[in-house]
Design a protein that fits this description.
This protein is mostly beta strands and 161 residues long. The chain has one domain. It is 0% helix and 54% strand. It is built from no helices and twelve strands. The N and C termini lie far apart (30 Å). 37% of the residues are buried.
Length: 161
């Protein structure tokens, strides 16, 4: 599947795979898109057993900002997470994930977070992340919801934590 030449604005994740996915996501290519004024830009969130394989994001511009203090997500331009939804619902795996020529500006760095052995073979080539404040909401937070309760971790923002 190819998704290309899109312009998106979202108070959630603009281009997203998951959160609710019991089947696998495979061979998906996002190309030549513009994301403006979104809470998250590119998001791969696995919680419900399905896995992600062979997915690429290329030649994409991402601009993120926070919308509220309690909103899910903290303006991460790129967010990749693999966490069990709960004790009865194990997450799948994320593997062979590629980010190429991605230009990001946002209030937060990107997030790569997973349970041991759940994320592998992720590459970033030509990814630029510039931090900028545009809202009044707290900074230096990463949102791991859903699946980790109300987990918002505080940590100094960097391109990748």
């Amino acid at each position: 599947m190819i998704v290309s030449d899109c312009t998106l604005v979202s108070t959630s994740a603009a281009l997203k795979i998951g959160t609710e996915g019991v089947d696998d996501f495979e061979d998906i290519h996002f190309h030549h898109c513009v994301i403006e004024d979104s809470n998250r830009g590119l998001s791969v969130q696995i919680r419900d057993g399905g896995s992600v394989r062979n997915v690429s994001f290329s030649d994409i511009t991402v601009r993120t900002r926070r919308f509220a203090d309690s909103w899910w997500g903290c303006a991460e331009p790129i967010a990749v997470t693999a966490v069990d939804r709960d004790e009865n619902t194990p997450c799948g795996r994320i593997e062979n994930l590629r980010f190429e020529n991605i230009d990001c500006e946002g209030e937060n760095g990107s997030l790569l977070w997973g349970q041991p052995g759940k994320i592998g073979d992720v590459s970033l080539h030509g990814v630029r992340i510039a931090l900028r404040d545009t809202s009044r909401w707290p900074k230096h937070r990463y949102d791991l919801r859903p699946g980790v309760g109300t987990a918002v971790t505080e940590r100094r923002a960097a391109g990748l934590p």
